[in-house]
Specification:
Layout (H helix, E strand, L loop, with lengths): L9 H46 L15 H11 L10 H17 L28 H10 L1 H11 L3 H32 L4 H10 L3 H4 L1 H14 L11 H4 L9 H26 L16 H26 L7 H33 L1 H40 L1
Helix pairs in contact: 1-11, 2-11, 3-5, 3-11, 5-6, 6-7, 6-9, 6-13, 9-13, 11-12, 13-14
């Protein structure tokens, strides 16, 4: 060995190269996913404006480019060039931090979202997820998405405006209230799949039936709670313009204002992917695509199926926004504490009992029985809820007449 020259074993050199390649691939995945998501957000805003125009019998944006195709670029340039106004009495540090928290927390959830088939046991295969094999992926998404409320609360408080502050308080009460039924609604899925890993949840549905058929009530509770968690109409009370001017972002302009809405739409994409993965089989498509199909074209088909399902869910959320009127705040809180939480608890108890009984009768036969029982209970509860709503509306009509 020559003096002055350090000796390194050939195995260590290969190990360092493999680690460097793993980190490089991981960084490339993060850059690609983040870039595609933000580009998708820009054009989803254009899509929602087109849907809103169609619902309201208008033309919509059509000046920038062919049928308004360049409108997102024009909006981006406008936000960049617009004056960044900060109120004189505002807390400047927190005022700047709040929009960044909104965007970062919404983007972090994509770390565990599988965009296609994955196989952590075989690293040589393409892994359509940034962090494969995370056994607490569902818990991670809930933990990260719950941090988004800090952005709204900080933005409302730091602006030193009564309208912004009231919007922040509303958001805190709303998000904390609806996180409870949101968590309860997915426990049935976890019991059926026996895992918090999103990849295993998809595999469990590919082996049997989509969980929306086993969990119709859980899906309904999850859907309503997801609308409230993303501050989408008819649950957009933190920013309702009739009462709070603009809500928590009243005192924001320029790119800070844009970051809030980038975070909101990114959260919508995350929720749409999560809905498809938990209840609609992810990339699974009965009679067409199965887990046994491998190869490049099969993997590409699975990715496209998942993207189409998620896109359909996003369009559905936009359609609901421009169809249903906004709730009052007392109705919003009553729906969570007196409606969704009892339904979520009942769904968890019934699911746990049926899964336990299914082990005694045999898994296949037990799940068939559970499927029938789930739908009977769901229809019974929904029927009771509709009867209660009709009775309540009649009572209010009689009370209005008496006055």
């Amino acid at each position: 060995m020559q003096s002055g020259r350090r000796f390194r074993a050939p195995g260590l050199v290969g190990h360092d190269f493999g680690t460097a390649m793993t980190v490089l691939v991981l960084l490339l995945k993060i850059i690609v996913v983040t870039g595609i998501v933000q580009l998708a957000v820009a054009y989803l805003i254009l899509l929602e404006r087109k849907i809103a125009a169609y619902v309201q019998d208008r033309i919509g944006p059509n000046r920038a480019g062919w049928h308004g195709i360049l409108q997102p670029i024009a909006d981006g340039v406008k936000f960049i060039l617009k004056e960044d106004f900060v109120p004189q009495s505002a807390d400047r540090a927190l005022h700047a931090l709040a929009p960044a928290i909104a965007l970062v927390t919404a983007t972090m959830g994509f770390a565990v979202v599988p965009f296609g088939p994955t196989d952590p046991s075989d690293p040589s295969k393409a892994q359509f997820v940034i962090a494969p094999g995370i056994d607490v992926g569902l818990l991670y998404i809930f933990a990260v998405s719950s941090l988004a409320v800090y952005a709204i609360v900080l933005g409302g408080w730091a602006s030193n405006s009564k309208y912004s502050f009231l919007g922040g308080l509303r958001s805190a009460a709303q998000v904390i209230s609806y996180e409870i039924p949101l968590g309860l609604s997915v426990l049935g899925v976890v019991l059926l799949a026996r895992s918090l890993n999103l990849e295993r949840i998809i595999d469990a549905q590919a082996d049997r039936v989509w969980f929306v058929f086993y969990q119709p009530l859980g899906f309904l509770v999850f859907l309503v709670a997801a609308f409230a968690e993303t501050n989408r109409a008819p649950f957009d009370l933190p920013e309702c313009e009739q009462e709070l001017v603009g809500g928590y972002h009243t005192e924001y302009s320029g790119m800070k204002f844009a970051l809030f809405f980038l975070g909101e739409y990114t959260h919508i994409i995350t929720v749409s992917f999560l809905t498809v993965i938990l209840f609609f089989g992810g990339w699974d498509l009965p009679f067409w695509i199965s887990r046994e199909q491998t190869g490049f074209f099969a993997g590409l088909a699975k990715v496209l199926v998942l993207l189409v399902k998620a896109f359909a869910m996003i369009v559905f959320m936009m359609w609901v926004r421009w169809t249903l009127p906004r709730f009052r705040f007392d109705q919003l809180m009553r729906l969570a504490w007196k409606g969704l939480i009892p339904l979520g608890l009942a769904n968890v108890v019934v699911t746990a009992a049926l899964v336990h009984l299914a082990r005694g009768f045999g898994l296949a036969r037990g799940l068939q029985v559970a499927l029938v029982v789930f739908w009977v209970i769901a229809f019974a509860m929904l029927g009771g809820l509709c009867l209660w709503a009709i009775r309540e509306s009649r009572r209010r009509a009689l009370l209005a007449k008496s006055l």
